[in-house]
TrEMBL record:
This is Quercetin 2,3-dioxygenase. It comes from the Bacteria. Belongs to the pirin family. Residues 25-120 form the Pirin N-terminal domain. Fe cation binds at H57, H59, H101, E103. Binds 1 Fe cation per subunit. GO terms for molecular function: metal ion binding; quercetin 2,3-dioxygenase activity. InterPro entries: Pirin (IPR012093), Pirin_C_dom (IPR008778), Pirin_N_dom (IPR003829), RmlC-like_jellyroll (IPR014710), RmlC_Cupin_sf (IPR011051). PANTHER family: PIRIN, PIRIN-RELATED.
Length: 305
């Protein structure tokens, strides 16, 4: 068991540059915490008026979870998927042993855009499998009764929360849920004691486990909790992530999640060689080249929390 924690994971600004031409706020991976359950990556891009052009790029060993807050995003991948995504809808892409995709904002001009993007690391078996893509426009919701003020509502984006299950495919015990807390509410979020959890404040104000949250911070709660108290004076939008602690050590580099240095080198080599492993995303004349590998051996990033 990890035990109860109350540790703030502050986001850092990461300039993506190149053909992307935008910056994001990144919380995971954190230098002291490579995963929360199987969640291994968390970016927020926006809110901003921007023209998003993420050209085809590869992934291995993970799922991408795209959750838009404002604006529309077009997803295309090497499986032939072509889907527009907007508020309240989920795009879930499973890389397996190799996939490539692109993400564009809708239209040729800058638009208001804000979204959360997560990666979920795949366990053995699933990470060697074939890729897949799912779009879910009708996700389950539930009411969270308030102890004071109006009731809160939750949308179960991925996995299971309060015995409500998302239709999206998962490969590990996991939870990803958006929670809307009204002004003046005090609620208790039910948690599984054998899972670790963390909560991000997306908008508004909130106290979680008596800790005053700052927008875009993630409060890591550890495990061993069956609930956590949340209050909000003016209303809040939260995102809860968590799950069974992921025991495998992973090597993450660029867009790849592997287990060894050699796996990452092989994936990079295959991408640069335009290997059939990653397929082709139709409708693009360019793709993102892999950056140079570091001069040192890639090693797993251990947990220090």
């Amino acid at each position: 068991m990890i035990g109860q924690r109350r540790i703030v994971l502050e986001p850092r600004e990461v300039p993506l540059g190149g053909v992307r031409g935008m910056s994001v706020l990144r919380v995971l991976p954190h230098r002291n915490l490579p995963t929360i359950g199987a969640w291994c990556f968390l970016d927020r891009f926006g809110p901003a008026d921007t023209r998003m052009r993420v050209e085809p790029h590869p992934h291995i060993g993970l799922q991408t979870v795209t959750w838009p807050l404002i604006g529309e995003i077009r997803h295309r991948d090497s499986l032939g998927s072509d889907a527009d995504l907007r508020r309240g809808q989920l795009n879930l892409m499973t890389a397996g042993d190799g996939i490539s995709h692109s993400e564009y904002s809708i239209g040729d001009e800058p638009i208001p855009l804000d979204a959360l993007q997560f990666w979920v690391v795949l366990p053995e078996g699933a990470r060697q499998g074939i890729g897949g893509f799912e779009r879910h426009a009708d996700l389950p919701t539930l009411t969270l009764p308030a102890e004071e003020g109006p009731d809160a509502t939750a949308t179960v984006v991925l996995g299971e929360f309060a015995e409500v299950v998302s239709p999206a495919t998962v490969h590990t015990p996991i939870v990803g849920a958006e929670i809307a807390v009204p002004s003046g509410a005090r609620i208790r979020l039910p948690l599984r004691t054998d899972w670790e959890h963390a909560i991000m404040l997306v908008e508004g104000d909130a106290q979680v486990a008596t800790h005053g949250m700052t927008q875009n911070d993630v409060l890591y709660l550890g495990d061993s909790r069956d609930e956590v108290e949340v209050t909000s004076a003016q209303g809040a939008l939260l995102f809860l992530i968590g799950g069974e602690p992921f025991d495998d050590e992973i090597v993450m580099w660029w867009n790849f999640a592997g287990r060894t240095h050699e796996e990452i080198v092989e994936a990079r080599t295959d991408w640069e060689a335009a290997s059939p492993r990653f397929g082709v995303v139709e409708g693009h004349d360019v793709r993102i080249p892999a950056p140079p590998l570091p001069d040192v051996r890639l090693m797993p990033r251990g947990r220090r929390i």
